[in-house]
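Run log, item B.
One chain of 364 residues. Sequence copied directly from the ordering sheet:
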Amino acid sequence: MERYDLVILLMAVALTCFGVVMVYSASSIMAAKKFHDGFFFLKRQGLYALVGFGIMAFTMTVDYEKWRRWAVPGLLGCLVLLVLVFVPGIGGTAKGASRWIRLPGFNFQPSELAKIALIVYMAYSLDKRQEKVKFFAAGFLPYMVLLAGLLLLLLKQHDLGAALTLGMVAIVMLFAAGTRPRYILGMVVLALPFLYFLVMNVDYRRRRILAYLNPWEDPTDSGFQIIQSWLAFGNGGILGQGLGEGKQKLFYLPEAHTDFILSVVGEELGLIGVLIIAAMFLLLVSRGVRVALQTDNNFGRYLAFGIVTLLGIEAFVNMGVVTGLLPTKGLALPFLSYGGSSLLVTLFAVGILLNVSSRMRGTP
């Protein structure tokens, strides 16, 4: 019988189930007003969770070595999907961003799948090119060219958050594979002017930075969301107002059931609830790092590092945004935020991580 890391499995299931509860708490009033059905988002998120558990159960039983054969086709397929979002009649647009492919009853976000496709491809390629990874032209530059192509497509979709996340995941995987730190540092230094240009020359991004520095300068517009988030945490105090008793979700806090769902947790379950969620993510990531370090196979090691880095970055950035430690950016909190694409892909990735855990040293 396979010996999966039960802590990772328990954390993934617990966070997902808790997320379904919080999505309902955060969205019921809004859903009743907008769709005349207070259970609208609950039913959809519950269905995503059930399907996601099925996907996780499948991927955790599939030998992770089999994903090698899908490394190149999967990445190429994601590149095609990232282009299709711009095709009229196929792609979907919301709030000025083109990030979705319209499917019957469901909008799929290819950028979520692209994160896993890149991790699988890089794990496969880094394992295959292990001897070349320490050289600039043969080992480092090709990955930067590939990454640049992916990031350009994401930036075309106005998805700077996904682009930065992919970039950070790729850097961690390259570092784990033995790329010379000076190559990575040089790339980061060269990227900073481009990042400055992307932020300061786009009006809504520039206003987000200014709101981050001083949200009270424009409290009814660019600073509104973070101020409402702070009010939610402040109202929650240590123990919270009680599950379902939060007030900021009543059309005060924008994106309460998606990007800012942790603010609802803070108001309803208090500092204690937020700390428990943070501790669960920390435990999941630390166990994932343990899996990576105790895996003899390089492909499995890089897969595990990539997946836990992705989960850790997304959780850290989201928590940083909702508490005002980082500028506002649309990035979901894994497992908890409403959204089918994010939840399904996250549980897919956790399933792969669990299969890697069953092949660690000391397991059959």
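Observations after the first pass:
- The beta strands are 91-94, 97-103, 106-108.
- The two ends are 8 Å apart (CA to CA).
Flagged for discussion on Thursday.
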